[in-house]
Amino acid sequence: MVRTAVLVSGGGSNLQAILAARLFGEIQNCELVSVISSSQNAYALDRARAAGIEVSVVDVTAFPTKRTFNTALLQKLHDLDVELIVLAGFMQILQRPIVKEYENRIINVHPSLLPAFTEPECFGLKVHERVIESGVKVSGATVHFVTEEIDRGPIILQKAVDVLQDDTPKILQRRVMEQAEWEILPRAMDLFCRGKLQVEGNRVLIKDDV
Ligand code: GRF
After folding, report:
1. Going by CA atoms, what residue is nearest to atom 5 of ligand 1?
2. What tens-digit pLDDT sequence spans the chain (210 residues)?
3. 78 in active site
4. Residue 196 burial (CB count, 10 A)
5. What is the domain extent for residue 55?
6. Is residue 210 part of a domain?
7. Domain containing 35 — which CATH number?
């Protein structure tokens, strides 16, 4: 079983999708050892507790710098003997020591079809605002491995979602989560934990997926 930590900061709807998929046996060979939050108040913590998952808080506001926060987070990951890190709405940037040590073992979900819509400070609702402004007819979500270059790591899975004429950023955000994020994040975890992913340069090959 792959010892997995899910990192969260907010509402935790992606975490909920992971918990549901796990319940239905759709994520195999995965041991959820902890949900780690960067905020004391994240609703995701309640979701994890309700599912009987151990929770930990590494509160970003308790540290003088991002570097000391990252050091504490890495220590926590070591303490838990984590092998796979899943970023599910985690709002902090992981720095080099974590990214290097966990190369090709950190999975993130981004609410656009990468490499589109990744300007600096473009996260959360902002992504969907930019998508609507740009006039594209299709958006979606991407699950990728995390590298030091933000939003540029090897892509594991993507799923497209229509952008409709009357969409507001909130409506589009909801559709992207429901139809794409909540499906491809658990699926990518399952593929990783069953040893089906092979990284070659910036490409991820999926081995005989049965
Ligand atoms: C999602 O849109 C995800 O793509 C982004 O942050 C949002 C998190 O939502 N990284 P939640 O906390 O999982 O509900």
Report:
1. 89
2. 999 999 999 999 999 999 999 999 999 999 999 999 999 999 999 999 999 999 999 999 999 999 999 999 999 999 999 999 999 999 999 999 999 999 999 999 999 999 999 887 778 899 999 999 999 999 999 999 999 999 999 999 999 999 999 999 999 999 999 999 999 999 999 999 999 999 999 999 999 866
3. no
4. 17
5. 2-205
6. no
7. 3.40.50.170
Q: How many domains does the chain have?
A: 1
Any idea how long the chain is?
210
**Rounded to two decimals, what is the model's pTM?**
0.96
- Containing H/E element for 18? helix 13-23
**Ligand 1 neighbourhood includes 181 CB (under 6 angstroms):** yes
Residue 35 Cβ inside 6 Å of ligand 1? The answer reads: no
Residue 122 maps to a domain: yes
153 within domain boundaries: yes
Exposed, middle or buried, 3 (CB in 10 Å: 0-12/13-18/19+)? middle
Does residue 146's CB lie within 6 angstroms of at least one atom of ligand 1? Answer: no
